[in-house]
Design a protein that fits this description.
Elements lengths: L2 H35 L3 H15 L10 H33 L1 H20 L4 H6 L9 H12 L4 H29 L7 H20 L6 H5 L8 H12 L5 H4 L7 H7 L5 H21 L1 H41 L3 H35 L6 H30 L1 H22 L2 H6 L2
Helix pairs in contact: 1-6, 1-7, 1-8, 2-3, 3-4, 3-16, 4-6, 4-8, 6-7, 6-16, 7-13, 7-14, 7-15, 13-15, 14-15, 14-17, 16-17
Length: about 450
């Protein structure tokens, strides 16, 4: 390699590092902005319901009881997931059509618009309107596309970058709720949304200054070809989803129900549930930052998927057994030592469960993005995120029904059976060339 070629290679590496670090910063700001207002929303809903009751626009039958507030909050979250379900594929197509920089700017401007409407929401209608711009609020999707395209064909580098995206999100998601609660402590439920507007605008500026103009270097070097229509790109997204190297992987997108179970079955207090979830988040953040790359080099993305599926099914059944035993134990004893002992065991299993989910998710995204061309990665990731939103709409209802039918054991037996079936299915249906491509 000549001196000039070495300089060009070093320059390329430095530029990739800069793009990734700006993306990490943007994801921290995105998670921080989102979480600043999220824990305040139930209280904001309560205050708006009480206000509308006083003004006479709500009947006395729709009082500000906890059930009414919970129902409104649930409807709001379902509407948000509905917007994301349709919006994620659109953002994916935009990534492939106009590139990372412009799509990122659109995403963060949409976030700023959503938070601006929320910051001035004087009634419940405006609260729901504030979720409409979230159709394009897909910053993590854009970050994944940036990681996938910036790291080239190196699967271990791609897995490491994807893992660090989760670490960056966890940093913002850890700080955001506490800071949002503190800011709203004096009764101003809109202040978090106002700060979120500023954070989103800052991310839009960073995106315009530092992110690449196109997500596909090869496309920049090739002569221009006939431009496809948006409908053509939508059809191509459907075609991508049906490829034999893709559809088995998309089927593995399954939601967990650990927080619901810890709340309803073990009857944990909010601070105990928060401790369990925080420990899991910190473990995932540390694992993504330091252990994902060595694991990807050792197992490959296909091995990561199978390991995550098998580990998750085993740990889920262990958790179900713990719940069955400890739920009855907690009814007969309330000693501090017993509760602390149970809490520590649940924390350990929950951390391992969270890590297995993280390994599975990273392995899946590493595998899927490696199985398509670079100018198709945005559309693919849009499909993945759309499936996440679909699962958030229907998954909790199914899990709750199973939970009410027989407790956690039926839930984890169903999830574990699906995981084992998917492990077998991936080994049979996924072409051998695809398995080797990302190892």
């Amino acid at each position: 390699m000549t001196t000039e070629e070495t300089k060009n290679e070093n320059r390329k590496i430095l530029n990739t590092d800069k793009v990734l670090w700006i993306t990490y910063i943007n994801i921290i700001l995105y998670a921080l902005s989102y979480q600043l207002q999220r824990p305040v929303e139930p209280y904001l809903i309560k205050s708006l319901i009480e206000k509308e009751e006083l003004e006479g626009s709500l009947s006395s039958s729709s009082s500000s009881s906890s059930s009414s507030i919970n129902q409104t909050y649930g409807n709001l979250q379902s509407f948000f997931s509905f917007c994301q379900f349709f919006g994620s594929p659109l953002v994916g197509i935009l990534l492939d059509r106009i590139g990372i920089r412009k799509t990122s700017i659109i995403v963060y401007i949409a976030s700023a618009l959503s938070y601006s409407i929320l910051a001035s929401a004087s009634d419940l209608s405006l609260l729901f309107v504030s979720k409409i711009p979230t159709i394009f609020q897909a910053a993590f999707l854009v970050a994944q596309a940036t990681a996938a395209t910036s790291t080239g064909d190196d699967a271990s580098l791609r897995a490491a970058a994807l893992g660090r995206m989760t670490t960056a999100y966890t940093i913002g998601a850890t700080i955001g709720p506490a800071l949002g609660g503190y800011l709203a402590g004096k009764g101003d439920f809109y202040i978090g949304a106002k700060f979120a507007v500023a954070g989103s605008i800052l991310s839009a500026i960073l995106s315009s200054l530092f992110l690449p103009d196109n997500n596909n270097v090869q496309r920049e070097e090739e002569p221009p070809t006939a431009t496809s229509s948006f409908l053509d790109d939508t059809r191509r997204s459907a075609e991508i989803a049906l490829r034999p190297t893709i559809w088995p992987l998309l089927m593995v997108k399954v939601m967990g129900v650990i927080p619901l179970v810890l709340t309803q079955t073990l009857k944990f207090e909010p601070q105990q549930l928060g401790l369990v979830m925080s420990c899991g988040m910190f473990a995932v953040a540390a694992f993504g930052a330091f252990a994902m790359s060595p694991l990807a080099k050792t197992l490959g993305s296909f091995g990561m998927m199978n390991t995550g599926l098998i580990a998750r099914s085993i740990l889920g059944l262990i958790m179900a057994g713990m719940v069955t035993v400890y739920a009855s134990l907690l009814e007969s004893t309330t000693t501090t030592n017993d509760i602390e002992f149970i809490l520590m065991q649940v924390i350990v299993v929950s951390i391992l469960h969270a890590l297995s989910q993280h390994v599975l998710a990273t392995g899946l995204t590493t595998q899927t993005t490696g199985n398509v061309d670079k100018d198709e990665q945005g559309s693919l990731l849009g499909l993945e995120h759309s499936l996440f939103s679909l699962a958030r709409i229907g998954g909790p209802a199914i899990a709750t029904a199973l939970l009410g039918f027989g407790g956690m054991l039926p839930v984890e037996m169903a999830c574990g059976s699906l995981d084992i079936l998917m492990t077998i299915s991936l080994s049979i249906t996924l072409p051998r060339s695809s398995k080797r491509k990302n190892t």
